[in-house]
Amino acid sequence: MRSTRAPRYARHRFPAEVISHAVWLYFRFPLSLRMVEEMLAARGILVSHETVRQWALKFGQSFANQIRRRLLASCDKWHLDEVVISISGKKHWLWRAVDQHGAVLDILVQSRRNAKAAKRLLRKLLKKQGAVPRVMITDKLASYGIAKRQLMPGVEHRQHRDLNNRAENSHQPTRRRERIMKRFKSAGQAQRFFSVHDQVANFFRRPANTSAAGHRMSRGQAFRVWAEVSGVLMGR
After folding, report:
1. Whose CA, among 76, 97, 135, 193, lies 20 to 30 Å from 163?
2. Residue 143 and residue 115 in contact, taking contact as beta carbons nearer than 8 Å
3. Pairing of strands 156-159, 135-138
4. What structural domains does the chain harbor?
């Protein structure tokens, strides 16, 4: 494997290719740190799971931020939903917004499920998206309506359980990761993890009604961009 020394990897014993691949494995698939350690060991790369954890903390958010800037602007329909997660024995809520194609727009871990929490999510979305949607779709939680009236009074709001399947389906990877990680240790840990995880998932997911050839082409492009954002192409 050819060594690459981008500035961000200075003083790291392993080359960019190894670090990038380990971070990609951890955030792309429902793998524990020890599973990633073992997969690397199968290729003759001896690194501890704690080192993989440090790589994920140091590089994951930077990679996710660059991916976010490369993704197309969100569409005009937002699906919002929340799911309960247990952190240190206490109930928290993971609020998530996705567009009509299933791409995650943003997430927010909060200890409350009320109008104040819904407003925090909407403010974060409006700041990052830079525009209001045409339609907002939620379940029948009244907090969404209160927040929408205060922050986006002109937006159409549809409330129906069956209409929000797209947002509810996006919670399924959350449940898988929660089991693999044996629950989250803190709200900050969950926020940091999903801020990276959902952006990586957006980038490599297969959209509906895509042919096999189209999927291979888009996946190849995603791998090329991942190499760029992780700095593996530098020095070649």
Report:
1. 193
2. yes
3. parallel
4. 7-70+206-230 (no CATH), 77-196 (3.30.420.10)
